[in-house]
Every structure is written in structure tokens, then in C-alpha cells.
UniProtKB/TrEMBL annotation:
Belongs to the RRP4 family. The lineage of its organism: Eukaryota, Fungi, Dikarya, Ascomycota, Pezizomycotina. It comes from Dactylellina haptotyla (strain CBS 200.50). SUPFAM superfamilies: Eukaryotic type KH-domain (KH-domain type I) (SSF54791), Nucleic acid-binding proteins (SSF50249), Ribosomal L27 protein-like (SSF110324). Signal peptide: none annotated. It comes from the Eukaryota. Keywords: Exosome, Nucleus, RNA-binding, rRNA processing. It is found in: Nucleus. Residues 30-60 are annotated as: Disordered. GO terms for biological process: CUT catabolic process; exonucleolytic trimming to generate mature 3'-end of 5.8S rRNA from tricistronic rRNA transcript (SSU-rRNA, 5.8S rRNA, LSU-rRNA); nuclear mRNA surveillance; nuclear polyadenylation-dependent rRNA catabolic process; poly(A)-dependent snoRNA 3'-end processing; TRAMP-dependent tRNA surveillance pathway; U4 snRNA 3'-end processing. GO terms for molecular function: RNA binding. CDD domains: KH-I_Rrp4_eukar, S1_Rrp4. This is S1 motif domain-containing protein. One of its GO terms (cellular component) is nuclear exosome (RNase complex).
Length: 350
């Protein structure tokens, strides 16, 4: 039976739907010039054009004026002296930048960048550090010196802290952190030196493909839900890991309780809450709204619509208007498509 490969549906971007993630049209070069009729066949001599799908080992072009980019390699030289061809080394779509041809993979792992907010899972507890899975080619490192100690005291870590390292994070724990540095081999080093980072609890974990979360100013969202669900926190990790949880108000945000506590005690209470393993009681109404938000995310991803704050809010409103309840309608193609279409319509009209 012959193998047929169907081109994937393009990502639907906020704003101009004709632009790709980097803001470059596939049929334009970086200078914004359109492809002239004279040079149009240059990268189509083998039946390939920008935006087309290729498989590993397939010839992209045999025109010598084109340079090979990521995801391509040059074929072996021929005995008759014909020029070498540019061949795809992976399955993906052709991307053109001036005279550079590269292949964008259909699926890829997350590539860390400094400043990214990521959600990760502890893989291993080592001496003075943790190994963290962040969906990258290499596991990330979280140093003992890169976390807040109970009490909020800035001091040098001692041997006592090393012995108590599992009281902070242990294998299987989920956490939200920020990429601090990158090593020469691409391994990321994380830090949680902020009260908005730390161990995750009171929620549900889900994964989507890397690249489906749009980079935003803030990746920690608080959504006011309906039907008595209250506020829900959403941690949109750039690495495709997402955490949806009941909203908790840190003591540092103020309130009657914090006013009666001294500053030293306030920092201590806040730090201890970060490393707590005890989940709070979550009402059925809040659980239902958390599940609804998760279904909205799955429906958007299934429709190749990137996730951001605007689309989440519009998708949630659309789900309420469609009266979709339950925990699995996000995998229902028809129901999800109705929600996505209504959300996109609201975005265009708004």
C-alpha cells in the first residue's frame, strides 16, 4: 500500500493569519520582496515550493544558487559533474529566507531560552541540585542555591540544607521556574527565587506540543470563572507543559491575615507554602471549571490555534455559550470546532 503524507493545517496566528511565527511570509524573503516570475522556478525545479511538505531524503532543489539551512544536507557529488542537490533530513515544511532554504520540523522539542517560564517535573535528586524534565533535548538543572529557603533568608547553603534537600523537591514533584542560564551544550539552568515560582499543587497537569504556547509578557494567568468556580490560575509553560489550578492568594498580597503577621513570619509562611505537599480542598464547581479550561486548550491545539491569554478567554466564553459541560468534550472534534470557530469569530469582531 503506498504511503500518503497529507500536509498539516497551518497555525492560525493572532492578527495577520498569513504570517508565520517569525513574521515572515513563506512566499516572501526577509526584505519583503515578492518572488519574481524569473526566479520562481529556482527552488521548484524538483516540484517543491515554500510551505510545501517534504520527507527525509527528498530533494528540495538542485539549483546551485540556493544555500542549505537547518534540516537539510547536500547530496553526494555525482560522477557526471552535475551540481549537488539540497536534500531534506527530516519531515517538515520548506521555509525560504532570501536564498536560504531550511526545513521546519512538523514536531520538535522545546529549545530553552533565557527568561522563559517553564513547568517541569523533578526527575532525580542529586547533590546540591535537581534534574528537571522540561520537554527539552536535555534535562534542566535546578541548583540548591537557586531556590528560596524557608524564612526567605539570603545566606550560603550549608550541609544541613543539603541533607534536607528532599524536603524542598523530591522525585515526581511539579514546579514552575524560570530559565536562568544556558550551558554550551544547550542544557538549561533554572531558578525559583521568586514567590510566584515553586512547587505546584491544587490543580491538573497537561501537555501540548512545543511551540503551541505563544510567548507573552506574562505566562501566569488568573481567570475569573463562572458557575461559582471562583478564580483559577493557569501556568502556560513555554515548553508546552501547562498547569491549571485553584487560585491561591500568597500572604504577601496583603489582607487581614497578613496584617497581623510580622514581616519575618510573613516570609516564613510564604516560603513554607511553596514547598507544601498538601493539596487544599477544591469545590466541585472549581473542579468543573478547571476541566472546562483544559478542554478549551485541547480544542484550540487540535485546531492548530496557538494558546495565549486572549484566545483562552474567548474560548472559555465560547464554551459557556455552547453549554458544554463534562471533562472530555475537548477531544470531540465537532464540539471543539464549534468552540474554536466561535472564539475566532469573536476575535475578528472584537
Amino acid at each position: 500500500m503506498p504511503l500518503q503524507i497529507i500536509a498539516p493545517a497551518p497555525f492560525i496566528e493572532a492578527g495577520d493569519d498569513e504570517e508565520d511565527e517569525g513574521g515572515v511570509r513563506l512566499d516572501l524573503d526577509n526584505e519583503g520582496d515578492t518572488t519574481m516570475d524569473g526566479d520562481a522556478p529556482a527552488h521548484r525545479k524538483s516540484g517543491r515550493q515554500a510551505g510545501g511538505i517534504v520527507t527525509p531524503g527528498e530533494i528540495v532543489t538542485d539549483d546551485p544558487q540556493w544555500m542549505r539551512g537547518h534540516g537539510t544536507y547536500l547530496s553526494a557529488p555525482t560522477a557526471d559533474g552535475n551540481p549537488q542537490s539540497i536534500v531534506s533530513s527530516l519531515a517538515g515544511t520548506i521555509s525560504k529566507t532570501n536564498k536560504l532554504l531550511s526545513i521546519r520540523a512538523l514536531r520538535f522539542r522545546y529549545v530553552p531560552e533565557i527568561g522563559d517560564l517553564v513547568v517541569g517535573r523533578i526527575l532525580e535528586v542529586q547533590t546540591k541540585r535537581w534534574r528537571v524534565d522540561i520537554a527539552a533535548p536535555h534535562s534542566a538543572a535546578l541548583l540548591l542555591s537557586s531556590i528560596n529557603l524557608p524564612g526567605g533568608i539570603l545566606r550560603k547553603r550549608t550541609s544541613t540544607d543539603e541533607l534536607q534537600i528532599r524536603t524542598f523537591f523530591s522525585e515526581g514533584d511539579l514546579l514552575v521556574a524560570e530559565v536562568q542560564t544556558l550551558n554550551s551544550d544547550g542544557q538549561a539552568s533554572l531558578h525559583t527565587r521568586s514567590l510566584k515560582y515553586g512547587k505546584l499543587r491544587n490543580g491538573v497537569f497537561m501537555t501540548i506540543d512545543a511551540g503551541m504556547v505563544r510567548r507573552m509578557k506574562s505566562h501566569v494567568l488568573t481567570m475569573n470563572t463562572s458557575n461559582g468556580g471562583g478564580e483559577v490560575d493557569i501556568y502556560l509553560g513555554v515548553n508546552g507543559y501547562i498547569w491549571i489550578a485553584k487560585h491561591t492568594t500568597p500572604l504577601t498580597e496583603g489582607g487581614a491575615e497578613s496584617k497581623s503577621i510580622s514581616i519575618t513570619r510573613l516570609e516564613e509562611e510564604a516560603s513554607e507554602a511553596i514547598y507544601s505537599n498538601v493539596n487544599e480542598e477544591i469545590s466541585p464547581e472549581t473542579r468543573a471549571e478547571i476541566a472546562r479550561i483544559g478542554c478549551v486548550i485541547r480544542a484550540l491545539v487540535k485546531a492548530n490555534v496557538k494558546i495565549d491569554e486572549e484566545m483562552l478567554n474567548l474560548g472559555y466564553e465560547a464554551a459557556l455559550e455552547e453549554f458544554l459541560e463534562g471533562f472530555d468534550w475537548g477531544s470531540d472534534t465537532e464540539a471543539g470546532r464549534r468552540v474554536v470557530d466561535l472564539a475566532l469569530t469573536k476575535r475578528r469582531m472584537g
